[in-house]
Every structure is written in structure tokens, then in C-alpha cells.
Write a structure and sequence with these properties.
The protein is α+β, with helices and mostly antiparallel strands and 198 residues long. It is built from 2 helices and 5 strands, in the order H-E-E-E-E-E-H.
């Protein structure tokens, strides 16, 4: 009758390599769980910091009405891989009675004399719009996903290396044991001095 053994070493067929593999798989599962938690925490922190920074930028950004004094022209993107965009020279007043003239981004069909809305800083210089919620959310998601991916990849690599070491040791141990048992099991004479002597 089969009687179940108790304790960690109860199963005689379960080798130390099997226990190590089980521990490594459990460690990888725990690493994945920790990666999710760390990714969520980092994403939330990036969201909070991004919103705070956007609010601070928004306090120093203002929209004004500007009038174009030239037609729209294409300009290369800010980065080599960035798409081109259209600009036109426009003039506006901010703060009151302080006139500024500078090239600003405009829709492609803008003509001279059109009125457009322009973002400016506290000194009245043309500036970028404050980051919107979608931009902040995208940055937060990228930060969280990057942390999650990095932790999972590092944890997976460490577990893979450890499992390969265990497999190599297990294969060497098996080959050593088989070299001693196979001649007895097969009935073949053992190689070595005196083997096959009559």
C-alpha cells in the first residue's frame, strides 16, 4: 500500500535539483509579482510628478491672440526623425503694451493677417503649451512598463542562468551514476583493467 511520506526529504524520487527548480520557479513568480507592484508604484509616482510639473508650467503659460504677418512655411522637425511642421511669423502683445514678433507653429493653411492663439511665457516669449493629461499618462505608463519589463527581464535572466547550472550539474551527476550502474544493469563487463581477461 502506498503511504505518502512527510517532510521535505520524504519523496525518494525527488532530487535536490528538482527542489532547486521548484524554488527557482517560485522565485520567478515572486519576481513577476514584485515587478507589477514596482511598475504600478513607479507609474503612479511618474503620474503625480508629471501632474505637479504640468501645473507648475501652466501657472507660467498664457494664451494670447496673435496676428500673422507672413504666410506659413515648412520647417524641419526638432529631431532628425521628427516630422516637419509649419510656421509663420506672428505678432502679439504680452504683457500689455509689449509687442513681440516671432515665428510660431501654425496650421498649414494659415495666411498673412490670420489670427491665431499662441502660448507665451510670463515675459511674453513664444513657448510650448503645458503638457496635457494624455502626455502625462503616456509618460507614466512608459515609466511603469519600463520598470516592470526591466525587473522581469533581469529576474528571468538570473533564474535561467541558475537553472542551466542546475541542469548541467544534474546531467554530470546522472552520467556519473549511470557509468557505475549501467554495466550491472546490462550485464556488460565493466571497462577497465582486467575487463575481458580470460
Amino acid at each position: 500500500m502506498y503511504r505518502r511520506s512527510k517532510g521535505t526529504g520524504g519523496n525518494p524520487l525527488r532530487r535536490e535539483a528538482d527542489r532547486t527548480r521548484t524554488r527557482m520557479h517560485a522565485a520567478f513568480a515572486l519576481t513577476c509579482l514584485l515587478a507589477v507592484v514596482a511598475g504600478a508604484a513607479l507609474g503612479r509616482a511618474a503620474w503625480t510628478d508629471g501632474r505637479r510639473a504640468a501645473e507648475d508650467i501652466a501657472r507660467h503659460r498664457h494664451t494670447v491672440t496673435a496676428t500673422t504677418v507672413g504666410g506659413a512655411t515648412y520647417r524641419a522637425g526638432d529631431r532628425p526623425s521628427g516630422p516637419p511642421f509649419t510656421v509663420a511669423t506672428a505678432t502679439w502683445s504680452y504683457p500689455a503694451h509689449r509687442t513681440h514678433t516671432a515665428p510660431v507653429r501654425v496650421p498649414a493653411a494659415t495666411r498673412s493677417g490670420d489670427t491665431i492663439r499662441v502660448w507665451v511665457d510670463d515675459d511674453g516669449r513664444a513657448a510650448d503649451a503645458p503638457p496635457d493629461q494624455a502626455h502625462i499618462a503616456l509618460n507614466a505608463a512608459a515609466a511603469g512598463a519600463g520598470a516592470l519589463t526591466g525587473i522581469v527581464l533581469v529576474g528571468g535572466a538570473l533564474v535561467t542562468v541558475r537553472l542551466r547550472i542546475v541542469d548541467a550539474r544534474s546531467a554530470r551527476a546522472w552520467a556519473s551514476e549511470w557509468a557505475g550502474i549501467e554495466p550491472l544493469w546490462s550485464g556488460r563487463p565493466r571497462p577497465g583493467p582486467g575487463a575481458g581477461d580470460d
